Amino acid sequence: MDTAERTENTGEEATGRRRRNRGFRLPRWSRRARRVRRITLGVLLAVLLPLLAAEVTLRVNYTGDPAEGTRTRDRDALWLGHAWVDGRRTDADVTALVRRLRDTGVRDLYVHAGPLEHDGTLPKSAYPKARWLIDSLRHKAPHVRVQAWLGDEVAPEKPYAMHLERPATRAAVVASTRQILAAGFAGAHFDLEPLHSGDRDYLALLDSLHRVTRAHGAVLSVAAHQIDPLPGFHSFWGTVTGHPKWWSQAYFGQVARRVDQIAVMSYDTMQPMPSLYGGYVAQQTSLALEATPDSTDLLMGLPFYHENRFGHWARAETVPAAVRGVRLGLSRTDADRPAFGVALYVDFAATEADWTAYQRDWVR
Questions:
Q1: What is the spatial distance between Cα 186 and Cα 177, in angstroms, rounded to a whole number?
Q2: DSSP label at 348?
Q3: Which of 52, 158, 235, 362 has its CA 20 to 30 A from that of 94?
Q4: Could you tell me if 109 and 67 are in contact, meaning their C-beta atoms sit under 8 angstroms apart?
Q5: Using CA atoms in the order 332, 335, 339, 340, what is the torsion angle rounded to 10 degrees?
Q6: Exposed / middle / buried, residue 169 (Cβ in 10 Å: 0-12, 13-18, 19+)
Q7: How far apart are CA 278 and CA 58, in angstroms?
Q8: pLDDT tens digits, one per residue of 249-292
């Protein structure tokens, strides 16, 4: 082979090597896609692993046996729908309700008498049969307190709704409370949602309301958001979804110290299984017990309704799972606490199975 041939062959071999080497290199778009996949996988693992660990913890929370005596303290409550004060219910309905409540632990009835207007006012036309209901129950069930359940959506998450930062709005809510106490209600039960953790205007409103209810010898109670299942979780969830949902345990305590009664809305938890839901309720019960002073009645909500939507699976959020969770949390944290109960939500959606489970697992 002469020099020219060797030079030509060497050039072809070099060209072939370069072509083969180029063939093993991924195109730029493919390398970028691989980086994106790796980053996505890392983010998913960073999010899912803590959530998986939290779910395992909830399942563990559901194990064990409740302590003896962790049953009703006769301080339970029942949310009642608007039909009881707008003329749809009759004397026969009151008689049936009294029969239903006999031999239960229910002491308080939260009767829906609102909703409040966004400016804090309450039309008297919203509860035309309130006096009839109050007088009927005073005669047939004198041990039961009838509280007016008042609520509304609130800003800033609902900008069109009630603005608690406005002094005039808070003053109107206070005036509405005087109005319902004058109508004969034994207390005022507030359910304002969604309230963000740390809302100082809500605390200011509660201070004003409590002065009024104390002066009337009446009860001030509130429906409360759930407590952070992980420290600071409301901030994380608010950043991701725009809806913080949970309160910090410290803020829960600030609310609890300003009222006579606080009922945790321990449902709509996004848990997919009864054991996880029950473990979640056990955790919420412990967290709420730690934050609530002995002078305030603490009630844990039971789901007496059956919906299937994002955040609530009827197959998971059952009364037996909730009651077992309540008893486990109570057993581990403050088993002998007298100022404790459960709150049943809600009368018009409840089934016989719900009432049977409540009676069997909590009242018995």
A1: 11
A2: G
A3: 362
A4: no
A5: 60
A6: buried
A7: 8
A8: 999 999 999 999 999 999 999 999 999 999 999 999 999 999 99
